[in-house]
Amino acid sequence: MSLRVEDLTVYYQTLRGDVRALESTTFSIADGEIMGLAGESGCGKTTLANGLILLVPPMRHVGGRVLLDDRELPIADVEAMNRFRFKEISVIPQYAMNAMNPTRKVGRMAAELLRSRRIDPKRTLPELEKRLDLVELNRSVLKMYPIEMSGGMKQRMVMVLSTLMDPSLLLADEITSALDVSTQKAVAKMLVDFRDREIVKSIIVITHDMSILYQIADSILIMYAGQLAEKGPTETIIHSPRHPYTKLLITSLPKVGVKHDATRLTGIPGKPPLLLDPPEGCRFRERCPAAFERCRDVPPFVEIEPGHFVACWRETESNA
């Protein structure tokens, strides 16, 4: 088992109180698995990613633990986590195109990163050059400043830097959102190549774009208002979702080959709750067309069929 997250709870400290951004999160990812993480803005996707690798104020670790390759990560200790970053767990951050230091040439940045982890840059240069070939970047980029590179080039360079030490787990946070369609497809394919070539063991792809996940993800985890809603194989989540939120999320997306005037897209009624004072029980209850009295209690995240988990009382009781 590559990653195991157990009851992870993370809040944001504010002057008005704690924002309960991530609560009681439990799931696992196997070696070789690419898991998509999806949901509306503010559902907790990036909070979950940050909680796995860089949990800093105003974030506060309330409870739970994270195990990577059977070792518990000291996620609440920023300094202790430093020895795991890049080597064991790494991230391609949101807005990765702006992640590189504009005053450093790319080659110098790579060398500084390696030295910070006590790795000789000269010995690693052949592997760095192979990685550039893999992402279809000319080796001359090592002598460039970031401003001299296009958006797609910068995105791919950050992918190389983030995986240079062959981390067990890679977090890819909205890495296709600012790219054109053809570049999105190329970047998504590169993530799969990283997994297939065993440069990384497992990947979490955080995105709003379900079409990207349908192309590359083995499984999809759906979040809503800081809680898990559903996790299952990609085909199951896309074609046979069981949680009411997942169903509405999927049906609100445009379908390939269907003209705009032939069908009318419907959004999800209502809006997500404020997490300073979230509602009791299922947080989707007030927007859910299938809600009933039992939904005032928090539903457990349970396996209803092999590899398919859902947090919904109706589904839990129908499978009892």
Give a brief description:
By secondary structure, the chain is of the alpha/beta class.
Key words describing this protein structure:
single chain; 320 residues; alpha/beta; four-stranded antiparallel beta sheet; 10 helices
What is the topology?
Elements: E1 3-14, E2 17-29, E3 34-38, H1 45-53, E4 59-68, E5 71-72, H2 78-81, E6 89-92, H3 106-116, H4 121-134, H5 151-162, E7 169-173, H6 181-196, E8 202-206, H7 210-216, E9 219-224, E10 227-233, H8 234-239, H9 244-251, E11 302-305, E12 308-310, H10 313-318
Parallel strand pairs: 3-8, 3-9, 6-7, 7-8
Antiparallel strand pairs: 1-2, 1-4, 4-5, 9-10, 10-12, 11-12
Task: Describe what this molecule looks like in 3D.
It contains ten helices and twelve strands. It has 320 residues and is of the alpha/beta class. It is globular, with a radius of gyration of 20 Å.
Portion in beta strands: 15-25%
Radius of gyration: 20 Å
The biggest sheet, with number of strands, parallel, antiparallel or mixed sense and barrel status, is: 8 strands, mixed
Order of helices and strands: EEEHEEHEHHHEHEHEEHHEEH
Give the CA-based shape.
Answer: globular
Please give the count of helices: 10
Q: Which structural class is indicated by helix and strand composition?
A: alpha/beta
Query: Cα distance, first to last residue?
Result: 28 Å
Low-confidence stretches: none
Q: Averaging pLDDT over every residue, what do you get?
A: 91
